Structure prediction request, 204 residues.
Amino acid sequence: MKNTLIQYRGGGYNGCYWEWNFFYFDKNGKFYNILSTGRNGVKDEKDAARLLAANENSTYFYRITTKKARKEFVRENNPFLVAKIIHWLGENTKLCLSWPCDNCGIFCFAANLIGTGERLLCCDCMSTFSCGNCGEIFESRNQLIDTLQQAQKEFPEVPEDLLNKIIENFAPICYYCFERRVEFELENKIRYWNNLWYKDRLVV
Ligand SMILES: [Zn+2]
Ligand SMILES: [Zn+2]
Prediction:
């Protein structure tokens, strides 16, 4: 077998719990045991051959030299797991493959992809979906504020220069951080005016 990533049910701690395991054959048919856990994990190439001969229907094959197979692999699996496997392949084999971002569909090298809770994201999409203040990644742009117009609509009582300052420095920013920032800036302003008032009194 060549150029193929194999996914199967490994694990098997206490006899009942299984999890996805992976091995890979490169273009010369060289065997790589990528992720192997528990009692059902493949230990070596012989074990792998045994698993393949058993021909279980919960074993999946990806001809990862094709874009179609890489797309399928990303779509069908948990993003954390995908990120783990593609980083492993990038570091441990001579493979130089690009993988599709789950959001924009652009193919990127593993080093530029990050697995979030729901998706495998490229660096560009990552910055579009993460808060510029706390760094948390959101599933929807609706959970973030990224323009002054949007900020004005949501916080009509806050002075425009303050909203603008926050947007310029942190957008996109999550609602939680936005509110904290507004509070922080307002407090700063009050402190500033109090100080000025004191100074004036002292001078007089
Ligand atoms: Zn993307
Ligand atoms: Zn935030």
